[in-house]
Each structure stands twice: as C-alpha cells, then as structure tokens.
Amino acid sequence: MSWLQKLLPPKIKRAEVSARNKSIPEGLWSKCTACEAVLYRSDLESNLNVCPKCGHHQRIRARARLDMLLDAEGRFEIGAEVVPVDPLKFKDSRRYTERLSAANKDTEEADAMVVMQGAINTVPVVVACFEFEFLGGSMGSVVGERFVRGAQAAYEQRLPFICITATGGARMQEGLFSLMQMSKTTAAVTRLAQRKLPFITLLTDPTMGGVSASFAFMGDVVIAEPGALIGFAGPRVIEQTVREKLPEGFQRSEFLLEKGAIDLIVDRRQLRTKLSELLTLLTRQPAVEA
Amino acid sequence: MKTIFLDFEQSLADLAAKIEELRFVQDDSAVDISEEIARLEAKSQSLTKDLYAKLTPWQIAQVARHPQRPYTLDYAELIFTDFEELHGDRAFADDKAIVGGLARFNGQSCMVIGHQKGRDTKEKIARNFGMPRPEGYRKALRLMKMAEKFGLPVFTFVDTPGAYPGIGAEERGQSEAIGHNLYVMAELKVPIVTTIIGEGGSGGALAIAVADQVQMLQYATYSVISPEGCASILWKSAEKASEAAETMGITAARLKSLGLIDKVVNEPVGGAHRDHRGMAQSLKRALTDSLRQLADLSPTQLLEQRYEKLMAYGRFKEQKVA
After folding, report:
1. Which distant-in-sequence residues (6+ apart) come within 8 Å of A196 by Cβ?
2. Does the pLDDT value for residue B24 go beyond 90?
3. N or C, fewer C-beta in 10 Å, chain B?
4. Confidence of residue A17 (pLDDT cuts 50, 70, 90)
5. Quick one: three-class SS letters along chain A?
6. Quick check: B198 and B155 in contact, CB under 8 A?
7. Using one digit for the tens of pLDDT, what is the confidence trace for A148-174?
C-alpha cells in the first residue's frame, strides 16, 4: 500500500474497493492501475481514460471507445440483430447459457463486439470494436458474424474498415465454431483488398490467441495502443513451456514495434487525428481539418 | 513393429502377451497349439473391433496422438509418388515441424504440405513435437504460392498439438504468420484439400487447413484448444480433460454432424497405427473423390464456393433490434 493510500479517508477507499470492475470504477475517485495515482474520475474521463500522471492507457468499454472515436452525428450500429446461441450445449462448472446471460447483465451487451458505421473527423468509416468485459472479448460465432457484416457494409459502400481488438482469443464454449471464426473473419478482409479499401487494425490491451492470429496483423496499417499486451500465446503458457523468465516488456506494444510486428503506436488522445490522416493518405483524399 | 498399447487397451495387451507366449512355447513344443493361437488372434481381432466401436472422445484423443500413427511423410510415401521435399522460408530457417514439397497424385503434379512429428526422441526434438514456429508457416505459405503459380492442387495434412508457444516464435510473429496463411488460403486460386490425420490443435492446425474440402480421419481430433488446456482453464484442473473432450466436440463424427467438416475417412480396425498401408489406401480414395469434386470448377467458381463455405461457419440467431 502506498503512503498516499494509507492517508486516504475510508470513504475514498471504499469507492475503490466497491468498484465492481477495475476498468470502469464507480464513484468519484479512481486509481491508476499502473502508477497507482489517485485520480479525480471526471479528469480521467475527459482524458479518454489515459492516466494524466503516467500516460497509462486504461481498458475501456466498446461503446465508450466508439463514442470517443466517431463523430457524434450520423452514426449507427451494424449487426446488433445477431445474438448468441449455445451450439454445443456447453457446460463446465457453469452452463454457457448462464455465462452468456451473466455477461449480458454485467455489460448490457449481447456479445463481445459492437460494430458501427460513422465518420472520424468527417472521414466515413465502419468500425468494429471488441468488448473485453463480455467474456474476455472472446471471439465466437456472433463476434465473427458481426465482424463480417461490418466488413460487408464497408465493401458495399466502398468505405474503409477499422477493427479495434481487446480480446483473450477464441471462445472455448463454442468449440470448433470459434476456431472457424478465424478463417471467416480473415476471409472477409480479403474482399476489402479486392476493392482497394483500407483495413486498419488497432490492437489494444489485450490482443491474444485466435484474434491475434487471424485478421489482427492483416491490417494495411497495424496500430497498437501504448503498453498493450499483444501476442499469440499467453505469457504464462510460454513461461511454463520454455521454463525461463520472460524478458522485460515481452509482448508489449513497444516490444512489437521494436521487432517490426506493428506499424506504429498511437496515443489514444491522438487517435482520431491519426486515423483520419492515415485514411485520407491511403485513399488519396485531401487532408481534413481535425 | 510391435504395437504400443494405450491405457484403455489393457485387455488387448494381455491377450497379445498371451499369444506371444504361446508362439514362444510352440517353437520347441511337440504339441501343435497353432489352433489355439489362431483362436486367440481371432478373439483379439473381435475385441479390438468392439473396443474401437465405442471409444469416448478422450480415448479418441489418445488414438489421435498414438506414437505409431502414420504422419505426413508416411502418407507422402504411401499415397503420392515422386515426392520432392522442399525446405525453408527464405528468411530465417527451415522448420522441421512442417514438411512440404512437390509430388504426383495419381500421376498429376501437386503440392503436399503437412505437420510432421518425430518417431524417436531425437527426431521428436528436431521436429519440435510437430509444433511449428513462424518459419514453418511461412514455408507452407511459400509452397502454397508456388502451387498457385504453377496451377497445382494443394493437399495439406494436419497433425499438431498447436503452434509453438515460445519466446522466439512470438518475437518472429507467430500470430502474423498464422493470420497471413488464413488470408492467403482464403483466396488461393488452386484447389485445397485438407485432411486432419491426427491432432488438429487450434490456430496452429487451422493455419494450413483453410480448404475447399476438409476431411478427417475417423480417430483424429480437431479443436479450438486441447482438452487439457480447456479443462485447466474452465474446470481449473487438467484432470477434467475427458469431460472437456466430451463437451467440446472434438471428434470426426461429432464435427461432421455439426457441419464443420465435409467427410470422415474410416480407419482400419483398431486405428490407423495398426495398418499404415490400409489407412493410406482408403485415404487415397477419399482424396481422389475430393479432388474430383473440385477439378471441374473454374478458379472464380472455386474461390466463390470457398468464400461461401467460410462465411457459413458459425451458429447464432437473429432477432429484431429494439
């Protein structure tokens, strides 16, 4: 416990403990998960949930993300009609259907992806965004289908397609159906290329497994948020396999940039400007006023 | 080669030991016991048949991993002629967990690509237990592009626990290597026929399994995560692997009924490892059939059909949005 925390009046501490979810704390105060600075919540939000003290990018919800990314006017959702079923009647310690309804209750989402059409600084786009709070942003049939419907909308209207990832990988409870979403989503991306439509991926914390190993690195431009964990296998699995300690910063955005795996790291607060700039450059449009 | 028995085959192992013993006795015995041996052998055969008629998914997973199971290079020899292995990704290394090369199939030129496990300890290590690194997938990609260039059909054989989870593999872009294969295979302008011959372990399997026809051997498995992995995450105990295998649906029969694969290729009595030649023969027939179905399609039709197949994966429902 830091000295600052010890000084905090109990009320503030309670706000922090009672927060059901670390990334979306309720109450007036919030603590940065990286530098432990105690932040006034509205300050943090107006800073797009980037810690003003240390620059740590906190995880954010899909709709909050789309809110800050897309222009306020004229946006609408795609694929919300697609909702999950339980094709294998899957049951471990809990039924899959129970997990689905619990996740639905917690997040008010039907599955782990929200797709919207709209504009970024007036540049029209379709954006698919993972919801990590819904079963770890895992990719099952609904995520795959919503992604494809988004890509399809972009294809038909000749718009760029952006995907923002935040996921642990494939959804085990849908078995091989989940694995097949990897080839399904990636195939949808090939269509965009046929029409020379830009596909940009933004990898946020975390981007692992089946999503990382499908379309995530197939973007014309692959962007990461600072400090995001990005990789195929999880660090614990690797550590158990190779039986050695992983290097400092392994599988973080900065490490991937160093290794040549991604194009650039973009601060969330510059994201709108960067994306509209990249999109206009790729499509040979004049620059837009940010 | 002496058959290695799996845990659930104890009754077969006992019987085999008995037969062995009688044979040994027979050599220096005045009494003719060949009749008794023949009787026991017939019994062993029918016992094998009964046992294999009702394997659980977890037992099937054991058969799929059997150390004597035929691997890609066995099929390359038994099904194809003139197999010419080609090596390397032209960038980093030759990954021996994936093999590939030119060959002839029923006299027609083709490309053969597959995971390869090792037989003895030394080879197992050299082939990294069939777990490819990025350079393996990039070699496969290079060979697929070559096949496209020369208009050769591609046969892939899947048999891997999964892509290797190592430091170097991550550094060299394991994710990108797998994703890139999925991307290119979705639009490769030649027929692709995939057979899951042993373990179809997740993304590491799928990276060479995007195909026009996907078939599975009867006792092969194909899954999003290994039963052990699934059990340790969802049940918090790897011991629940058999339950996980049951519920995940990893067997050929189950996946066929779910519409996730096109065809199940039956194995010889007691599994492919008991009769490589017999297995290769039925697989060759199945491959011939599969290829014939694709042969008459134009490249455009082929790609259209493949795309539709890929888009059809998934189960969900649609409801009115409020």
Report:
1. none
2. no
3. C
4. very low
5. CCHHHHHCCHHHHHHHHHCCCCCCCCCCEEECCCCCCEEEHHHHHHCCCECCCCCCECCCCHHHHHHHHCCCCCCEEECCCEEECCCCCCECCCEHHHHHHHHHHHHCCCCCEEEEEEEECCEEEEEEEECCCCHHHCECHHHHHHHHHHHHHHHHHCCCEEEEEEECCECHHHHHHHHHHHHHHHHHHHHHHHCCCCEEEEEEEEECHHHHCCCHHHCCEEEECCCCEECCCCHHHHHHHHCCCCCCCCCEHHHHHHHCCCCEECCHHHHHHHHHHHHHHHCCCCCCCC
6. no
7. 999 999 999 999 999 999 999 999 999
CA distance A61 to chain B (A): 21
Task: Give per-residue pLDDT as tens, A33-69.
Answer: 889 989 888 889 899 999 999 999 999 999 999 999 9
Two structure tokens written together for B240? 């629940």
Cα-based angle B221, B224, B226 (whole degrees, multiple of 5): 65
Residue B57 · residue B240 · CB < 8 Å = no
Q: How many CA atoms lie within 13 A of A117 on its CB side?
A: 19
CATH number given to A60-283: 3.90.226.10
Angle subtended at Cα A78 by Cα A74 and Cα A79, rounded to the nearest 5 degrees = 165
ipTM of this complex prediction, to 2 decimal places: 0.95
- The residues facing B171 across adjacent strands are none
pLDDT tier at A23, thresholds 50, 70, 90:
low
pLDDT of amino acid A2: 66
List pLDDT tens digits, range B153-193: 999 999 999 999 999 999 999 999 999 999 999 999 999 99
Minimum CA–CA partner of B245 in chain A: A175
The answer to whether A17 faces chain B, any CB pair under 8 Å, is: no
**Domain B61-312 is found in CATH 3.90.226.10:** yes
- Domain locations in chain B? 7-54, 61-312
Cβ neighbours of B223 in A, within 8 Å: 175-176, 179
Give the span between the Cα atoms of A74 and A76, in whole angstroms.
Answer: 7
B260 contacts A172? CB cut-off 8 A: no
Sign of dihedral through CA atoms A232, A238, A242, A246? positive
Does pLDDT of A110 surpass 90?
A: yes
Name the 3-class secondary structure at B95.
coil
Using the predicted structure, report yes or no on whether residue A13 has a pLDDT greater than 60.
no
**Do the chains contact at A177 and B313, CB–CB below 8 Å?**
yes
> A161-209 pLDDT, tens per residue?
999 999 999 999 999 999 999 999 999 999 999 999 999 999 999 999 9
Domain with CATH 3.90.226.10 in chain A: 60-283
pLDDT score recorded for residue A19: 44
Query: Dihedrals φ, ψ of A276, to 5°?
Result: -65, -35
Judged by a CB distance cut-off of 8 A, whether residue A102 touches chain B is no
Q: Which amino acid is at A2?
A: S
Give yes or no for residue B279 having a pLDDT over 90: yes
Query: How far is it, in rounded angstroms, from Cα B239 to Cα B218?
Result: 25
Q: Specify the amino acid at residue B87.
A: H
Could A176 and B258 be called an inter-chain contact, meaning their C-beta atoms sit closer than 8 Å?
Answer: yes
